[in-house]
Every structure is written in C-alpha cells, then in structure tokens.
Design a protein that fits this description.
Layout lengths: L2 E10 L2 E11 L2 E6 L6 H8 L7 E6 L2 E3 L4 H5 L2 E4 L11 H11 L7 H11 L15 H12 L6 E5 L7 H14 L4 E5 L4 H4 L4 E6 L2 E7 L9 H13 L1
Parallel strand pairs: 3-8, 3-9, 6-7, 7-8
Antiparallel strand pairs: 1-2, 1-4, 4-5, 9-10
Helix pairs in contact: 3-4, 5-6
Pfam family, one: ABC_tran
Organism: Corynebacterium bovis
GO molecular function, one term: ATP binding
Length: 238
C-alpha cells in the first residue's frame, strides 16, 4: 500500500499553512520534521482526514480524500494526535476494547485484537492497569496501541515522543519501527535522535512547504548525529 499526497494545500482565510505538498510514501517509517509552525500537524491532520484540503488529494490505494468516500480511507488508517491519552479511569484493555468497538471490529474478534495490540506495545502485563496510573511513556504507548487497532495500512503519529525521557523514547522508537515493517508509518518529530537510526525517509517542512525529502541515509554521513543536526538546522533556519 502506498500513501500519495498530490499537490495538497491548506488555507485558513488568506493564510496558507500547507502549500502544494506532494509526497509518495510506501511501507516503512517516514519522519516528518520541521520547526513549530512549519505545517507538520496540519499536513498530518489532512492525511488523517480530519482537515479537508483546500486543494489537492490524499490517496491510499484506491481510497481518495476528499474526492472519494472518506470512509474507505478512515478504515485503513490509525492516528495518534499530539495531545492524546490524558488520564483515564479505564484500564488499558478496556480502552483498547473500546477502540475495537469504534472501528467496528466484530465482538468475537475483539479480544484477540486487543491481545495483539498489547503485545505490539509491550503492555501485556499492564492490561488491567488503569491508564491514569501509568507513566507518561506507557500512556503514549497505549496511544500507539489505539492507532494500530485493526492493523491499519497507514499509521500517523504526531510527536509521539514529546515529553518522554530517553529510555521511554527508545522503547517507543523500537515499537514504531516494528509497526513500520507492515504499514506506512508517518511520524512527526523535532527530536533528531528519534529518527536517525530507524527512519527510512526524512521529510523537512518549512513555512508550509517541503524543503527536502530523501532517504535517511542520504541526509547525513554514516548516521552522524552532528552532521544530521547541522544539515537540518541549516534548512529550517535559512
């Protein structure tokens, strides 16, 4: 399955937030980078069918947004917004079961789907723990689990590692990389270390446009963090 953004623009009044963006992303992990206000979240919301583009289209296989039936695309995607998984009285398993219900997964298949999601996010032992009692890192993993319910072809994660410590980010990075072996995964981040070793491609946005899109190995010499940061900062500050 391939995700295609074709000349996507989003305008609020006279302000253009996303400007004629075109991307083609196959299965794998794709990092979307840029400073605050670059248009990353708006582009991700458009990919997730939560923001209608002013022009252009988003397609995943034969599902096209906004020209076609949006339900076809929504059935194939999972989305983790930036502000997600606030404290809840539900247990982890209860929350994932609720997500199964929202995705119209048959009742007899929901328990197995919850087990699969728990295993994917390494929270099987916490299945009966209330979300509100989990650490911030674990709550973000529950959010990722919510996004992969139904085994979607497209998984969109907006700043999934925001506010996490180094160990939590490493765990989440490993989980995300594993999901990307079977789906198109688009991750927005401004933390270079989160994508230096695992991303397949790097896309950098600035003022609503794409300033570069390339394989991660072409972005920096031999995985050199300093080189990666230097090139990234030169792009967004120029």
């Amino acid at each position: 399955m391939t995700l295609v953004a074709d000349q996507v623009s989003v305008r609020y009044g006279r302000k253009t937030v996303v400007d004629s963006v075109s991307l083609t992303l196959g299965p794998g992990l794709h990092a979307l980078m840029g400073q605050n206000g670059a248009g990353k979240t708006t582009l991700l919301r458009t990919m997730a069918t939560l923001q209608k583009p002013s022009s252009g289209t988003i397609s995943l296989g034969e599902a096209v947004w906004p020209d076609g039936d949006v339900r076809l695309l929504r059935r194939r995607l999972g989305y983790l917004p930036q502000d997600n998984m606030r404290r809840s009285r539900l247990t982890v398993a209860e929350h994932l079961s609720y997500m199964c219900w929202l995705r119209k997964i048959p009742e007899d298949k929901a328990p197995a789907e919850v087990d699969r999601a728990l295993d994917s996010i390494n929270l099987t032992a916490e299945r009966d723990t209330r979300i509100g009692a989990l650490s911030g890192g674990m709550r973000r993993r529950v959010g990722v689990g919510s996004a992969i319910i139904g085994d979607p072809d497209l998984v969109i994660l907006d700043e999934p590692s925001a506010g996490l410590d180094v160990s939590q980010r490493e765990s989440l990075r490993d989980i995300t990389a594993q999901i990307a072996t079977r789906a198109v995964v688009v991750v927005s981040t401004h933390i270079v270390e989160d994508i230096l070793t695992v991303a397949d491609t790097v896309t950098v946005m600035k003022t609503g446009t794409i300033v570069t899109h390339c394989p991660r190995r072409d972005f920096a010499r031999d995985g050199d963090l300093a080189d990666f940061e230097r090139r990234y900062l030169a792009m967004v500050r120029s």
